[in-house]
Design a protein that fits this description.
With 158 residues, this protein is of the alpha+beta class. The chain has 3 helices and 7 strands; from the N terminus they run ββαβαβαβββ. The chain has a 4-stranded mixed sheet with strand order 4-7-6-5.
């Protein structure tokens, strides 16, 4: 007599949304048939894998990769433009010696770039050193996770 083991009933699925302790949206997984039938499908969290669905996923991944590449190239172009400008001049009311009244902030740099280059830049990507006196400084703009641009700031007193 040969004992028969129960066959593991596993189904290949693609998640439609993030499921805690299972996976993230778009992930290809193997789950037990009962879990799929009783929980994932009724809640609309998963879809059974078909050849057409796999083709569609590959096309979507390629589109996303192309979009990421385009965004990175755009950031590199903007970095080249910002670095070839040479520098931006900032005028502040002068104080005693080399000191100026107030400080030069990231918002000041964003306003200057918008005025000179007609480019909108988010002030959260700009890191400016603490500027309290006249001179030359270097500010950094993080345009993309892999692309940063360094611009020169010339601070003058009126």
């Amino acid at each position: 007599v040969v004992s028969q083991k129960k066959a593991k009933k596993v189904r290949k699925i693609i998640l439609k949304e993030n499921v805690a302790e299972l996976g993230k949206k778009g992930e290809l997984l193997d789950v037990k048939a009962g879990y799929l039938r009783n929980f994932l499908l009724p809640m609309g969290m998963a879809q059974i894998v078909t050849p057409d669905l796999i083709k569609e996923m590959k096309m979507e991944e390629e589109r996303i990769e192309a979009e990421k590449k385009r965004v990175k190239e755009e950031a590199q172009k903007l970095a080249r433009v910002l670095e070839t400008v040479g520098g931006f001049k900032v005028k502040r009311k002068g104080g005693q010696g080399k000191l100026i009244f107030g400080t030069v902030t990231a918002q000041d740099l964003v306003d200057i770039i918008k005025a000179q280059l007609q480019r909108d830049i988010d002030k959260r990507i700009v890191s400016v050193p603490e500027i309290r006196e006249t001179g030359e400084y270097i500010a950094e703009l993080k345009l993309h996770p892999e692309v940063t641009a360094q611009v020169r700031l010339f601070v003058y007193a009126n």
